[in-house]
Amino acid sequence: MSNKKTILCIGAGYVGGPTMAMIAKKCPDYKVIVADINPQRIAEWNSDDLPIFEPGLDEVVKAARGKNLFFTTDVTSSIKEAYIIFVSVNTPTKMFGHGRGKASNLQYWEKTARSILTYSEDDKIVVEKSTLPVRAADAMGKILHSNTKGLRFEVLSNPEFLAEGTAISDLEKPDRVLIGGMETPSGKAAVQALVDVYAHWVSKENIITTNLWSSELSKLVANAMLAQRVSSINSISAFCEKTHANITEVSRAIRSDSRIGSKFLNASVGFGGSCFKKDILNLVYLCEHYNLPEVAEYWEQVVKMNDYQQNRFVMRVLENMFNTVADKKIAIFGFAFKADTGDTRESPAIYVSKMLHEEKARLAIYDPKAMKEAKHDLADLDQSLIEYCNCPYEAAKDAHAILILTEWKEFKSYDYAKILGLMTKPAFIFDGRNILDHEALFEMGFNVFPIGKTPLSHLT
Ligand code: UDX
Ligand code: ADP
Fold it and tell me: Which position among 85, 87, 98, 347 has the lowest Cβ density within 10 Å, counted as fewest Cβ atoms?
């Protein structure tokens, strides 16, 4: 028999791990189990060296692990034991067949649904936590209700809005928790059971309940709108580079309008991460499916602008380095898709590195947290042209240029006079995140190329 106060999460990834650790910490009256088919991942969650880097995560896990938080590979008996089951397995973009390149690959998700069906011995609440296409809960419901055991499953959607690097504070003080469910008496009871969990630490006003489809769609729309802001400001950065406008000044001027707001208006080499591109393409696919080509095209442009921005960045490097980087050492500072994470999924650094590799540049990569991931991402390139460095100074030694691709704070505090001394001259810095003190670097002797600003070059 399952226990009403046992929660299971299937999938111990970036979303499942931190979210369940927070629930366990805030709800000592619940037992929380996190199960994954990957034994190495589970071993890491049970060790001192957690599989993901996230500020504050270690403390939260250590406080609850072994008390009411458990990591296991035993999916089967966990399913039997839990009453509330979160599904947080990976749903990457499908790379084959119909919908290839846009739709979600639901194979892991469907397998999970089938396992729940096979091993359940009594009624359960199943909560979608992975990003899924709108109406996926419907499919989940259909699979679960195909059972002949007479069991009742209530499917809820509870999308995750945490951002990597700030996952713990996002979980601790969420802007909102969104829970979607069926508008039937049993659906409403299931929603209430999940509200009761979050109400341990989130105020009632910040727990939004909706119908199932609104909840699923809201997740895609939230990410599409955030990505749209980044693409919008990046499109204007291209404009600034052609004129004497300065993107930082433009951004500051518009963000002070309270109707526009201050967040997600930093121009960059492009957005990355596991969600933005995937979720927008998912939205595009759904729009096409529902025969809304204009709507599909509108959102697809956000992704196209992001591809353009990354490509433009590499072209700027090439053009300013005398149209060739062949056999030149290029130091890459930052490989993660953003600061404070070791995650490199969809990181602009992958695209930039691959393009420079095609130009036969020698790459020297340094990232404070993502070296293992960088090696994995670039494994299919000619390794004799790539150095994975232990420190920024090693990467900069004899390099012709430094490319800043992640906004790690520590990049600001390096000894750039020392770095300049180590580099081949003329020395270039292409700041893909606009985080360095460009004037000071120029004064030192660097040729500095920020995003969306007039270059500071000694060569013109
Ligand atoms: C995102 C959403 O923010 C989160 O709510 C959702 O649950 C998952 O997807 P995440 O992928 O962790 O979170 O990263 P986010 O902080 O949104 O940044 C995405 C990308 O945009 C990063 O590459 C970041 O560097 C870039 N970005 C962000 C910019 O280039 N400029 C900005 O102003 C903000
Ligand atoms: P996210 O960023 O959405 O959390 P991750 O890829 O980090 O995605 O994590 C998804 C996890 O789900 C992986 O650790 C993977 O091993 C796990 N997983 C995938 N399929 C199953 C399954 N059928 N049963 C249990 N775990 C699964």
Answer: 98
